[in-house]
Amino acid sequence: MKRLSIAIDGPAGAGKSSVAKILARRMGYTYLDTGAMYRAVTYEALRRGIEEEAAIAAMAAGLDMTVAPGEGRMRVFLSGEEVTDHLRTAEVSGAVSRVSAIPDVRTVMVALQRKLSAAGGTVLDGRDIGTVVLPKADVKIFLTASPRTRAIRRYKELGGSEAGLSVDEIEADIRRRDLLDSTRAASPLVAAEDAVHLDNSDLTLEETAEAIMKICREKAGEER
Ligand code: CDP
Ligand code: CDP
User: Fold this and answer.
1) Cα dist. 170→12, 40, 51, 150, 167 in Å?
2) Residue 13 C-alpha to ligand 2 middle, in angstroms?
3) Whether the model pTM is above 0.85
4) How many angstroms is it from 1 CA to the middle of ligand 1?
5) pLDDT score at 221
């Protein structure tokens, strides 16, 4: 069967990375978490105390970023040092939309993402995969769920009340990021014209993955 390139875009907490991982495992594909790559740039900017946009872009251009498949999530390395465990902190989440809105940062990351997925047999998740990174992807999914559903999911993921954040606070952060991501000038979060829209507010992860697998099977069948 033809090895497809699969693009999954959508807002925070829609289930993109969980579903992408399931698909990659079942299909024997490579999973590329592009959000983690923007988070790594953000982490490094925070660590070095760089705030100015041009300076962040210059730093991103000089980064030696590599990735590797991991048990749970994709692993990210900067100059050989693993930074995976530092990428999902509130500090990084709070700053990543601003960093990822810098056009020259996006240019560098998009080039790296294309290089890493050039061989096909890949599942990429992000915001601009179907529109910018892989406009010719075989399968494009625009995955959504209501902001409330996404906030509840993230709340559970953070360990419920132990995380110290309420569902309302998480929902506010999600809405803020949605707005920043969908209104920025460079590669805003929009569905590609040829993307299949899938609202999984009322679907389990398993059902969501199965719906996408079905689309992939149909696509692979067409191209045989
Ligand atoms: O998992 P979650 O949806 O919270 O975030 P993520 O996928 O790790 O992405 C973090 C941030 O990176 C997003 O809020 C976007 O600002 C940015 N991003 C982007 O601009 N383009 C991508 N292809 C992926 C992520
Ligand atoms: O990558 P993205 O931010 O789009 O979402 P995620 O990190 O894959 O999913 C956020 C949380 O929602 C995870 O804990 C998933 O297990 C959960 N989820 C769910 O319970 N049911 C779904 N249909 C999709 C995601």
Assistant:
1) 11, 21, 25, 9, 5
2) 5
3) yes
4) 31
5) 80
